[in-house]
């Protein structure tokens, strides 16, 4: 026929209950090796080949996907430290995509005096996806098209299994203990194959959708989105087989990425010149291979603080671990609601989150403390905007009450109290695995009055940042540091225009300029970027460039103009004319 229909044989292994192989391939991308990154040994060619990227600046974008009410908007608010995205326990709270800026941490050059530098990435929260979106349900292909500019995906799941696939809340009290497993759903046999095994049952209410079911059907929706677009133009492919690769450019990637997808299909497909002999499953296999290359994915097990979540998270991680040990790390427990609540405490000046002191990259370790700085007084309560109350309503149980501390008139120490919302936020933080410490006597007394609570079955603290870090390093840009001093990694002085448009004191940052470039970008590309806005750090013609790896200030060497930049390189330029500096 002139066109293909939907595949009639959609992967027999998937029909037997196993996770789709292409989903596993999307999760299987391994984050870049930090030690190789610091030594400058990270290969550029393989990354460039897998992404099919062009050279130049990279506006790295992370897309948030998932069913309605899974917590995407809460994750967005936590990751961008805003309260801009509407949050609600009902479907389609988000209609138009929310776009903001989140920060991920990269290792700083040795000698700079700091360990890590935050760099901005774009975060896009699109409307909730429902089964049948590729057929027009929900926002249909309009939602899917919002993902075209995403470089990596974070699938936000409701790990508590408290809603159905459409995002409608089924479990009215998700804080209640899990139901008796005798009435629970049976999960497929781990490792594939049909049937179930005793001991694999999960407590799950009738009508709800587990995170395992969610990651499966969301991936199939993405697959059908791409597949249907190809099938609709198959008559053109039959007339001109090379046109097949052009059909993938609408996903903001060059034809070379589709060519790489065809080469990596397993088992190999018939040659393109014999495309008239292809069957529906051959096209489906090509789409599988393309999705694995184009959309690396992290599963964020949101709402992991709820009682029913731990068993679902462990079950999915165990199944992935049987396929490949590293796959289990692609499921990251988190509580976006907890992060939003703690950020509000920080904005009030009530508490401060302190990062781990074990030397791990920010976001990769969960041993984070929350320091209670002071107890708000009556004036603080009067100025409360109510944002925090709304943010924590879903997380706080109704038994949490105000906590008042009276140190006595003669103690010399101010009294104060924690509101019900603040106490609930700290209680949630403790459940998520944060260590709570006090900065003074009243704060310590308030913490002592917090109800004792069992911690969640998994450590959840810092999960939002850990998710972002993993998504960034699955398909990392080339991160480079342009400096005027290779030994200390001091940034170039800002131009007069940059200082005028920037914040006061912005020129004093030691490691200020961190650029994200596409793999394959050259020394000449970087020089051209620094000549123009928004940087304008250099002027004149290129003379020469020197560079060194991130972790070795002594390994300085001259760089060729056409040389591809390595991951984490520190670069200094010499030109015929300096940029327009402030006199």
Quick recap:
By secondary structure, this protein is an alpha/beta fold. Helix content is 31%, strand content 16%. The strands form four sheets. Strands 2-3-1-4-5-6 form a six-stranded mixed β-sheet, sandwiched between helices. A five-stranded mixed β-sheet has the order 13-12-16-14-15, covered by helices on one side. Strands 7-8-11 form a three-stranded mixed β-sheet.
Rounded mean pLDDT is: 75
Tell me, what's the shape? flat
Distance between the termini: 73 Å
Indicate the radius of gyration in whole angstroms.
26 Å
Strand content: 15-25%
- How many DSSP helices? 20
- Main sheet? 6 strands, mixed
* Portion of residues within helices: 25-40%
Strand order of the largest sheet: 2-3-1-4-5-6
Structural class of the helices, strands and pairings? alpha/beta
Give the uncertain stretches in residue-range form: 1-16, 44-50, 84-95, 186-200, 381-398, 407-414, 496-500, 502-508, 579-583
Total strand count, please? 16
